[in-house]
Specification:
The complex is a heterohexamer, with two copies of chain A (130 residues), two copies of chain C (117 residues) and two copies of chain E (92 residues).
Chain A: E1 3-8, H1 17-30, E2 34-40, H2 61-72, E3 76-79, H3 80-85, H4 91-96, E4 108-111, H5 114-121, E5 125-129
Helix pairs in contact in A: 1-2
Chain C: E1 2-7, H1 16-29, E2 33-38, H2 62-65, E3 74-78, E4 97-99, H3 101-110, E5 113-116
Parallel strand pairs in C: 1-2, 1-5, 2-3, 3-4
Chain E: E1 3-7, H1 13-21, E2 28-31, E3 50-53, H2 54-60, E4 71-72, H3 75-84, E5 87-91
Parallel strand pairs in E: 1-2, 1-5, 2-3, 3-4
Classes of the chains: A alpha/beta (130), C alpha/beta (117), E alpha/beta (92).
Amino acid sequence: MLSFSVLISGSPFQSSAHHSALRFIEAVYKQGHTVNCAFFYSEAVQVANDLICPANDEINYHQAWKKLSLQHNFPLYACVSVANKQGVIGKEESMLYELSYTNAKAPFEIVGLGAWAKSINDSDKVIQFQ
Amino acid sequence: MLSFSVLISGSPFQSSAHHSALRFIEAVYKQGHTVNCAFFYSEAVQVANDLICPANDEINYHQAWKKLSLQHNFPLYACVSVANKQGVIGKEESMLYELSYTNAKAPFEIVGLGAWAKSINDSDKVIQFQ
Amino acid sequence: MKVLVVISSSPFKGDKAKESVDLSLSLAAFDHEVSLLFKGEGLLCLLEDHQPKSSGLKDYFRILKALDLYEIESVYAFECQQYPINQLKLSQRISPLWCTADKLQELLASHEMVFHL
Amino acid sequence: MKVLVVISSSPFKGDKAKESVDLSLSLAAFDHEVSLLFKGEGLLCLLEDHQPKSSGLKDYFRILKALDLYEIESVYAFECQQYPINQLKLSQRISPLWCTADKLQELLASHEMVFHL
Amino acid sequence: MKSLFLINRSFTQEKLNECLSIMSDQDLLLFIEDGVNNLLNHNLSFNKQCKAFLPDMVLRGIPNTVHSLPIVNNYQEWVDLCIDFDKAISWK
Amino acid sequence: MKSLFLINRSFTQEKLNECLSIMSDQDLLLFIEDGVNNLLNHNLSFNKQCKAFLPDMVLRGIPNTVHSLPIVNNYQEWVDLCIDFDKAISWK
């Protein structure tokens, strides 16, 4: 059994990165392996925004990640500096910036790049989806 | 005196579209012309998200648009279908989706594509920033 | 206004192709004379055998079937060595006018506005 | 881990180049052996006369000056006909090792991970 | 160390040649996402080990007849490739 | 109707030729944003009317000496060009 760290850097709206990464991770579990974390960086952090409301017949990648993460119990990390710059705010920063609300909630976690630096130490395989 | 309709379709985080459009519009007014509207479409709708919190020494394009729009009194429109899909929610949709808050507020307005269709009828010049 | 909307993005890499179609339909609904031009990777919108359902994606190309209903004036396609798609099975939904660089030059000159997401 | 971070994006079109530098510094801070590779449009990061202040932009390239302080192992640049920047004035901040395709092949083989935003 | 190169976009001849030139003979290039669009381009010649990812071809309506590359049939085979190879490199 | 073409990214020779081939002799191509990076590419030949946007060159540290195209000096001149020409076309 091997463990994967998955970096997603492509936009949920202008790339196929999330589509591929979700299906890849399903297959990781089907093959009996595990995922250490999915780490969202660059434009990919957008997917942590819980206000995402696509049309009814379109895929909601925010929900898709949530579901897969809860099903297999792997963490969803979004990089704090990029997320904040792009308007995706967790609880801590919400207090820091004195905002009245937050749009990034569990199972998404807003974390530093250190979480990724650690994850790649602790895993057997690393893959990136641009 | 001529009037411009300005379409912005590039991401505020991964293109130079907002940088160029803001400076272009300043120059439009300097030359004695006016702007009918700035219309945000495609990835550009992100800029209407008022949770955007870049580092202190970086440009905040959300604020820059707000300031320029209030200074010269032209409207900022973001396309409703794209904005909602990308997690940018105005007051009306917030009620519609039964969300407890909204992250797109005045002077940004969440509108249909019809607003753009009308604006280009009423203006002398049209320009797009990808 | 006589408007040309250019689609040069892949139909499945994000939303640009879909957004271009939506823009075209809205402009047409507001009485603009809209033409569509497919070029580059956008030409792949014209292939017959897309299977968006195979990946749980929305089949927004169904709409292309009904472009005439939506009063889209004309549909053009710009030939391209990189995507020689007219050697493949093309969608029955649209029959674009294929154009060369000269024809495209005319087309660009004869429209009052061009949008290209 | 021996990590190679590849920068192939223009320094001024959005945040990818900056995000790549941030990623490199963080990985180095957590004791990974990080090398940087500039290629394609990313080579423009190496030009001397950027004037980000002229456009009100942040000069994040100041950080490049201090790559050795941050314990970045090595900096490489992949030659490229399209951007013959070594004919221009290059930044004093970094002296990359210029490499050919063969050398790059070795480089990719000798790193345990490669990230390319 | 042998690497699995992932290409997810259309390449020009020049770009593809650059990528092939930095691959070793043990490496494998897998065309995924819009990378499979490259299979339509008759001007490209794949002179290193290359494969195409079937689900992305099916989605895009690109028939198997346009090329002669070996196929990776599904995501599970892709996962297995990641394990066979020492690392995956997302190139562009 | 004469058009102002705006190019905001790097082009290959082939892409540039395509763009030039669809311009009429009255049209003008303006390199803006990362489009000014094309000025570094000695392989490109600009056989239609082309200009470069100075503020984007200055920002990127691209010296005026690398090319011989006429310059558009600032945003006000760009606005004036938009008025001189019947329409602006953002190409890619």
